[in-house]
From TrEMBL:
GO cellular component: plasma membrane
NCBIfam families according to UniProt: oligo_HPY
TM region positions: 75-99, 106-130, 136-153, 192-218
A Pfam family per the record: BPD_transp_1
UniProt-listed SUPFAM superfamilies: MetI-like, P-loop containing nucleoside triphosphate hydrolases
Taxonomic source organism: Streptomyces jeddahensis
Disordered: region residues: 270-307
Gene3D superfamilies recorded: MetI-like, P-loop containing nucleotide triphosphate hydrolases
Protein name listed in UniProt: Putative D,D-dipeptide transport ATP-binding protein DdpD
Highest taxon of the lineage: Bacteria
Recorded topology in the membrane: Multi-pass membrane protein; Peripheral membrane protein
């Protein structure tokens, strides 16, 4: 961090000047040979000379001495403003942005009220009430300046709340407090530093302004405001008394702004590595619980018995509310996963795969809600978990590996620190033991030279290495179910294969179950035991992987399989695609949701919702015209 700041020459220069001024003011009694009130009428209103570097005022007092002594109270008052403003605003801004809900609404109302007050009039009232106590007035000014900082910090915290690495920290079981201190605060530090510098500059202006009006130091004691006031009265005779205070004020204000800019750039660079690494995600609050008894998703013919199952999802419906309209994106979904099993969910983009995985890991985005059904994990009712139980579930039951490894790792933390915090949070290990465990985890995900990797920031890793670190974090809590949402989509093909191989070998070593979400049959086919095909928010087919892949019964599954690059025989032909596009959630028809793109469509497909039924042992399909051996599987593929 310090290196990044020093790289900004302007800011470094400004900091040196600012520090020099502050130190000189603090050490004024030592640095000056005369006192600030020592008069010498014979030397009145002189210009700069070797004896008086900034000249003298009308009473022959040395202006430099008065600037240095006067700066002590002026800078102290500015500091009070800044400390009060930032000290009040930062906690409120973080709570409003990160916690949200009613806390956000209350804080927003209070800040709106304070912002609507006329600052100058309030200050004059405060000054009248505390005319002898400028520090109290400065503290009041700090309170008046806090609301814009609250808004700024709130915005930064809100943006961080939506980052993938916060989801990852939640799934790793870190409590809200730890997440705020370890992940949110470092990310809002940039805006805080800038605001602190600006608040100090503003405080300085106010301190000087109030003193100019006579509320500050009383003669003969100096401060910069009273010096400017006195200087303005003798401006016709000499500009130096005015310039001395004015230059000090201008210099400190300018350096504060430049230092603030430098600090902000330093904070941004240290958490991003490069600006291109920063991405935003929509906000996501906790989900709500509700029930929906009706189920069109029929019984799974191939599943572990409920008492053997690790995860049992029944009739799950998920909806998003945007602009006051609720839209179901997953409807009536059944899914069962046995301990140690790898199940894949496959389907085109927008079919609801991630919504299912996020509902299971309790990470639905803002506006997202479980509106029906149940999710049971071992003996837990996942949808109703709260507080400690939710941390416990995330800490020891599920883990989440996200699509983009770069955004899923906190860019402001070295890999070793990031993993150590996860390891220490749950197991209460000493630092040394936690560091050893971190190296063990990095070795477990087959990263060469774990000690060197532990010292790097995420932006210093390749995509594949970053995803291995993401997996190391996911297994650090020894989960029973690892959810991997498109874990290889952001990686190139060779790295994809390595990551899938790693997931398979970790699953075997640790005995955990895996729910793999992908739009790519090739990925699912490499490691899954069973597969669930989703279309339009519902399951259209499921069964053992080899069975579904060899004998797809739903035309959609068949079309997906036909679109795999590996199924193209003639390299000269373009890749096949499925005709039409996925319907948006609000456009789903009553009958078969795939009907508009299906060449097997008949009138009865549109008449009523299509139930799931068994086509064979261990093989279910939601289609009234399931494909049979010999039926064309490419009918919907457009080449
Ligand atoms: N935060 C959100 N707000 C509103 N709608 C959303 C939100 N997230 C997802 N959706 C909608 O939910 C539907 C299902 O999205 P989901 O991400 O679950 O599908 P997916 O199959 O995983 O697709 P992808 O592979 O592109 O992520 C989509 O229509 C999408 O627009």
């Amino acid at each position: 961090m310090a290196r990044q700041f020093l790289g900004n020459r302007l800011a470094t220069g400004a900091l040196i000047v600012l520090a020099a001024i502050v130190i000189a003011c603090a050490a004024a009694p030592v640095l000056t040979s005369s006192g600030p009130t020592d008069t010498s009428l014979g030397e009145s209103l002189q210009g700069p000379s070797a004896r008086h570097l900034l000249g003298t005022d009308q009473l022959g007092r040395d202006l430099l001495t008065r600037v240095l002594f006067g700066g002590r109270s002026t800078l102290l008052h500015a500091l009070i403003v800044s400390l009060v403003a930032v000290g009040v605003a930062v906690p409120l801004g973080i709570v409003a942005g990160y916690v949200g809900g009613w806390a956000d609404r209350v804080i927003a109302t209070v800040t709106d009220i304070v912002m609507s007050l006329p600052a100058m009039i309030v200050m004059l009232v405060v000054m009248t009430a505390f005319s002898e106590h400028l520090p109290v007035a400065m503290a009041a000014l700090g309170l008046i300046l806090a609301p814009p900082i609250v808004r700024n910090v709130r915005g930064a915290a809100l943006a961080v709340r939506n980052e993938l690495f916060i989801d990852a920290a939640k799934v790793a079981g870190l409590s809200k407090g730890r997440i705020v201190f370890r992940h949110v605060f470092p990310r809002v530090l940039g805006p805080i530093l800038v605001q602190a510098a600006l608040a100090t500059a503003l405080g300085l202006q106010f301190a000087v302004g109030l003193s100019f009006l006579g509320f500050g130091a009383q003669p003969p004691s100096p401060d910069w405001g009273s010096m400017i006031s006195e200087g303005s009265q003798v401006l016709n005779s000499s500009p130096w008394p005015l310039l001395a205070g004015g230059i000090a004020l201008g210099l400190v204000s300018l350096t504060l702004v430049l230092v603030g800019d430098g600090l902000r750039d330093m904070a941004v660079e240290s958490w991003t590595g490069s600006p291109s690494r920063r991405r935003r995600r929509p906000a996501r609050p906790p989900v709500m619980v509700s029930q929906a008894p009706r189920s069109q998703d029929g019984p799974e013919t191939e599943k572990p018995a409920p008492d053997e199952a690790l995860l049992v999802v029944r009739g799950l419906s998920v909806a998003f509310t945007t602009g006051g309209t609720e839209r179901k994106v997953v409807s009536d979904l059944n899914l069962t996963i046995a301990p140690g099993e790898i199940v894949g969910i496959v389907g085109e983009s927008g079919c609801g795969k991630s919504s299912v995985s996020r509902a299971v890991s309790r990470l639905l985005a803002s506006g997202g809600e479980i509106v029906g059904g149940s999710i049971r994990f071992a003996d837990k009712d996942v949808a109703s978990l709260k507080g400690e139980d939710l941390y416990e579930y995330r800490r020891h039951s599920v883990s989440y590996v996200a699509q983009d490894p770069m955004t899923a790792l906190d860019p402001s933390l070295r890999v070793g620190v990031l993993l150590r915090r996860i390891v220490q949070a749950g197991e209460g290990l000493s630092r040394r033991a936690a560091d050893a465990r971190v190296l063990e985890l990095l070795a477990q995900v087959q990263l060469p030279d774990p000690a060197a990797v532990a010292k790097r920031y995420p932006h210093e890793l390749s995509g594949g290495m970053a995803q291995r670190v993401g997996i190391a974090r996911a297994i650090a809590t020894k989960p029973r179910l690892l959810i991997a949402d498109e874990p290889t989509t952001a990686l190139d093909v060779t790295v994809q294969a390595e990551i899938l191989g790693l997931l398979r070998s970790l699953q075997q070593q640790l005995g955990m179950a895996v729910l793999l979400v992908s739009h790519d049959w090739g990925v699912v086919a490499q490691i899954c035991d069973r597969v669930v095909v989703m279309y339009g928010g519902e399951v259209v087919e499921r069964g053992r992987l080899e069975k579904v892949a060899r004998e797809p019964a739903h035309p959609y599954t068949a079309a997906l399989l036909a679109c795999r690059p590996s199924s193209v025989v003639d390299d000269d032909l373009p890749l096949p695609t499925i005709l039409g596009s996925v319907l948006s959630p609000g456009e789903w028809p009553t009958g078969c949701r795939f009907a508009a793109r299906c060449t097997h469509r008949t009138e009865s497909c549109d008449a009523a919702p299509i139930p799931v039924s068994a086509v064979a042992s261990a093989h279910d399909v939601r289609c009234i015209h399931p494909l049979r051996d010999g039926d064309s599987t490419e009918v919907t593929a457009d080449v």
